[in-house]
Give the backbone structure.
Amino acid sequence: MAIAKVIEITAESEKSFEDAIQQGIAGATRTLENVRSAWVKEQKVVVKDNKIAAYRVDLKVTFVLEDR
């Protein structure tokens, strides 16, 4: 039987929401093993000088725990 854990992370990009998601997954897979899925909980933008300065996403990342 597999046991999974879900964590929430926030990622940011100056390019796009899609790039923020890619950055978030890249960061999660550098520090976690067995990442299986992720879903976008929320999207936000940072506004500076009346323009979008950054795109932020809150991701819920699921990974499977290993038996030891």
